[in-house]
Amino acid sequence: MTVAIVHYHLHRGGVRTVIQAQSEALSNEGVKHVVLSGSAPTAGDTVPIAHIPELNYAGQDETSDPAKLLAALD
User: Fold this and answer.
1) DSSP H or E stretch at residue 3
2) How far apart are CA 9 and CA 29, in angstroms?
3) Within 10 A of 36 (CB to CB), how many other CB atoms are there?
4) Measuring CA to CA, how many Å separate 29 from each of 36, 39, 64?
5) Exposure class string for 1-12: b at 16+ Cβ within 10 A, else e
6) Which of 11, 28, 54, 61 is most deeply packed, by most CB within 10 A?
7) 69 within 8 A of 55, measured Cβ to Cβ
8) Residue 61 above 70 pLDDT?
9) pLDDT tens for residues 30-57?
10) Contacts of 73 (CB under 8 A, 6+ apart)
11) What is the pTM of this model?
12) What is the predicted pLDDT for the residue at 21?
């Protein structure tokens, strides 16, 4: 089993700090995991990040296709 931490952005600040701490705790326990984010990884990221552009809902309209998001997450 792989644990997924999902959030639409990884901007500097509180959310990023919490996700990094969660990822480090999972790594320390040997739990396979990935962070799924609408924002792309940046240089120096120490957590396993998969960029899922469909998660970045900022600026999207109401016609976004949920099936496309589900397929990207899978």
Assistant:
1) strand 3-7
2) 25
3) 18
4) 20, 26, 37
5) eeeebebbebee
6) 54
7) yes
8) no
9) 999 999 998 888 877 888 899 988 888 7
10) 4, 6, 36, 52
11) 0.79
12) 94
